[in-house]
Design the sequence.
């Protein structure tokens, strides 16, 4: 029984090998797997399950990349294409800010804005810098988490700056952390099939390394459930674990289940709820140097996300008011959950709800 | 890890009410799931998961009962009130058969104008035209029909059976505890009456299912009570083929957000009983964790009922897949039509292919079955993940 051996290692806090991760993926005993992952989560975060009040802004869906699996992007002139001006973005945020202010005037109604979008064919780097600066000025109490590695690479190209210079400029403008999108599967075999249009896995890791180097904390994601094997997933996790070992700059790992609807990838099947939970659990156990594992309820559905809290996840993300990207790919949930609903999910899972800020500091309500 | 989970209830003797209550309130979910999974494997070692292709036809939405959780009923004379014509009904049955269906599930409200003759004629006319299994008339309907005809339940059932009724669905059970029924469905038949109808049905050789609707205002003890009366009746008759727990869906119902008054009464009833309150004060829908807990417990407690159905209609396909590892071995109906649940704002458009692919995705072989769980058609065994 090799699960027993893995169990011993986990209880002793020892690092798992790739072979052991494979065994966990293939093993049928999801209950022991869940308990071990929960144990690992409790060692890191106690019984806490975090959430954040945040808003998503997708400034544009115009994108020069047009990745095969992306149901969100449009080409210029295509039906449904849009681009927001900075004023429009600020007005949206202000409106949200104002809508709750009346009830609780002393606390801001959200603490984080999450900004990701397409690679706009016309916008210059200054436009993005300006966007960050003006949001920061308009809402100084709100933290800004913005731009995936793919966008950073694009900014560097259009500005002629190095990655480092690009990231420093953004940081000076007010960017405080980065989401983990665009990682998909880092290994080139699968990556060349699902998103040849996108920066390479190596480049993605490079952007993250430099971001961590200039003091920007980031997340990391993995898109699973399309053409990859378990070994591809483990290879992906290994690359992340190695980089984290050097930089310590990753905050959360977020496995994202592939949504087949509306995308051009033919193998259209949703991942199973069991695969979702297994992936969360193996991630928690394998990524022993990541402080947090996030079960992103918009993608998983709130029921599986809740259950994930018993399979090693410690973060449900937030009350999200606008999320265009997954909805266009047929995500399972509605696009907003109230704080009361999130707290209820966490408590019913037997965990302690903790509202956090962008850096996982508890926020007193 | 924590919790008083007995080592193995797959081999150990029947668990008592007290043990059931302990498991429900004290055991950790994964421990409970592990036992339920073991029990399921023991009863269904072949690793398949069955489903039935059928259509849910609601012949009328007029109902005198007006249960508080029901978003479906209308009063007679309401603009949206209807009674299905035979033409429409036959059309639906024809479509069902064309899509590979073998059964219709016919349920409706308690319509004050429809008597025994109406039903006898309806059943006969279906059987005359179609070779299809008729799974119809839950205990509240049977009781109402018998009462209006001045017959005993047994005689009414007998007449219905003669006319073509094959089996009875387990609806209307909600929670078989009169304390809870007083609150959520005061005009509905009592728990005792529900059980009586089932016992009579089993007595004349009809198979039935049993359901439980949780997540309204019940406490853990009510759930155990429900499971226990079902298990006891099954011990005598053996007539239940399956048990189907599903969660109350607040939404467009009197019990949902709108009914603060009911919530208060529910709270008061729980307080008076001295039981811990499982539901939060606001009536939020039961969460996935609560669903799996009750599902697992049902599998463990109901050791004499062969099949436990996952309710993908209320839980979604992903959760239903997970449910297959928490005690369930059946996906229930493909629901070529589902009016009652759709009316409360939960909508799923799911095809037979989706069901089969969900079962395969969870690592099981899908099997199309009939109401008696005979195999009609086998699919192929799925693999759980992506490990190619
Ligand atoms: S995934 Fe990102 S980079 Fe690719 S087309 Fe969509 S928006 Fe553009
Ligand atoms: S649940 Fe059944 S008995 Fe109650 S009102 Fe609805 S249709 Fe009538």
Sequence:
């Amino acid at each position: 029984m090799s699960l027993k051996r893995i169990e011993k290692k986990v209880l002793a806090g020892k690092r798992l090998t790739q072979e052991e991760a494979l065994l966990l993926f293939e093993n049928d005993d999801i209950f022991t797997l869940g308990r071990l992952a929960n144990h690992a989560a409790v060692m890191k975060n106690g019984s806490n399950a975090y959430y954040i009040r945040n808003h998503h802004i997708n400034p544009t869906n115009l994108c020069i990349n047009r990745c095969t699996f992306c149901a969100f992007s449009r080409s210029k002139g295509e039906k449904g294409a849009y681009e927001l001006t900075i004023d429009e973005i600020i007005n949206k945020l202000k409106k949200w800010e104002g809508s709750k202010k009346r009830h609780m005037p002393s606390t801001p109604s959200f603490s984080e804005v999450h900004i990701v979008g397409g690679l706009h064919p016309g916008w210059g780097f200054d436009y993005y810098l300006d966007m960050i600066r003006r949001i920061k000025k308009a809402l100084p109490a709100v933290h800004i988490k913005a731009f995936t590695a793919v966008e950073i690479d694009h900014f560097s190209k259009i500005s002629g700056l190095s990655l480092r210079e690009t990231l420093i400029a953004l940081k000076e403008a007010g960017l405080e952390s980065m989401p983990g999108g665009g990682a998909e599967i880092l290994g080139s075999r699968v990556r060349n099939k699902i998103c040849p249009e996108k920066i390479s896995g190596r480049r993605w890791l490079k952007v993250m390394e430099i971001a961590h180097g200039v003091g920007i904390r980031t997340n990391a994601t993995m898109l699973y459930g399309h053409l990859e094997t378990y070994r591809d997933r483990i290879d992906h996790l290994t690359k992340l674990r190695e980089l984290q070992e050097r930089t310590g700059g990753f905050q959360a790992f977020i496995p994202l289940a592939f949504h087949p609807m509306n995308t051009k990838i033919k193998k259209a099947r949703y991942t199973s709820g069991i695969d979702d939970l297994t992936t969360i659990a193996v991630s928690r156990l394998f990524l022993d140097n990541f402080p947090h594992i996030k079960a992103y309820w918009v993608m998983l559905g709130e029921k599986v996300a809740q259950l994930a809290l018993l399979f090693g996840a410690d973060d449900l993300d937030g009350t999200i008011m606008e999320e265009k990207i997954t909805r266009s790919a047929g995500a399972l949930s509605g696009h907003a959950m109230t704080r009361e609903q999130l707290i209820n999910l966490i408590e019913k899972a037997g965990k302690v709800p903790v509202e956090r800020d962008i850096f996982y500091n508890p926020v007193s309500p | 890890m924590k919790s008083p989970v007995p080592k193995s209830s797959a081999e150990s003797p029947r668990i008592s009410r007290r043990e059931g209550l302990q498991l429900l309130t004290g055991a950790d979910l994964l421990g409970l799931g592990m036992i339920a999974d073991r029990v399921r494997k023991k009863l269904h070692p072949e690793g398949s998961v069955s489903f039935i292709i059928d259509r849910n036809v609601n012949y009328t939405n007029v109902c005198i009962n007006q249960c508080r959780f029901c978003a479906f009923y209308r009063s007679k004379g309401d603009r949206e009130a209807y009674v299905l014509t035979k033409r429409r009904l036959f059309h639906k049955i024809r479509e069902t058969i064309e899509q590979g269906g073998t059964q219709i599930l016919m349920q409706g409200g308690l319509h004050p104008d429809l008597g025994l003759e109406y039903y006898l004629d309806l059943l006969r006319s279906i059987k005359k035209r179609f070779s299809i299994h008729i799974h119809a008339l839950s205990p509240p309907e049977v009781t109402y029909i018998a009462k209006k005809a001045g017959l005993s339940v047994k005689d009414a059932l007998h007449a219905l059976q003669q006319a073509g009724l094959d089996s009875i669905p387990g609806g209307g059970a909600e929670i078989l505890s009169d304390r809870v029924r007083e609150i959520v469905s005061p005009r509905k038949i009592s728990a005792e009456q529900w059980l009586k109808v089932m016992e009579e049905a089993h007595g004349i050789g009809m198979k039935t299912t049993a359901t439980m609707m949780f997540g309204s205002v019940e406490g853990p003890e009510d759930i155990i009570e429900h499971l226990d009366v079902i298990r006891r009746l099954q011990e005598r008759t053996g007539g239940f083929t399956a048990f189907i727990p599903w969660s109350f869906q607040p939404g467009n119902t009197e019990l949902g957000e709108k009914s603060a008054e009911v919530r208060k009464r529910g709270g008061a009833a729980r307080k008076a009983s001295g039981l811990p309150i499982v539901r939060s004060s606001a009536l939020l829908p039961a969460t996935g964790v609560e669903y799996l807990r009750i599902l697992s417990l049902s599998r463990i407690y109901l050791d004499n009922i062969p099949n436990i159905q996952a309710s993908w209609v209320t839980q979604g396909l992903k959760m239903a897949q997970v449910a297959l590892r928490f005690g369930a071995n059946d996906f229930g109906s493909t629901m070529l039509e589902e009016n009652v649940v759709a009316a409360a704002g939960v909508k799923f458009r799911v095809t037979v292919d989706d069901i089969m692919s969900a079962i395969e995705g969870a690592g099981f072989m899908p099997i199309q079955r009939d109401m008696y769980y005979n195999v009609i058609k086998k699919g192929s065994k799925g693999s759980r993940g992506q490990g190619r």
In short: The interface with chain B takes residues 25-26, 28, 30-32, 34-35, 38-39, 224-225, 228-230, 233, 269-278, 300-304, 306-307, 310, 332, 340-341, 344-345, 347-350 of chain A (CB under 8 Å). The longest helix of chain A spans residues 230-247. The domain at 3-355 of chain A is CATH 3.20.20.70 (TIM Barrel).
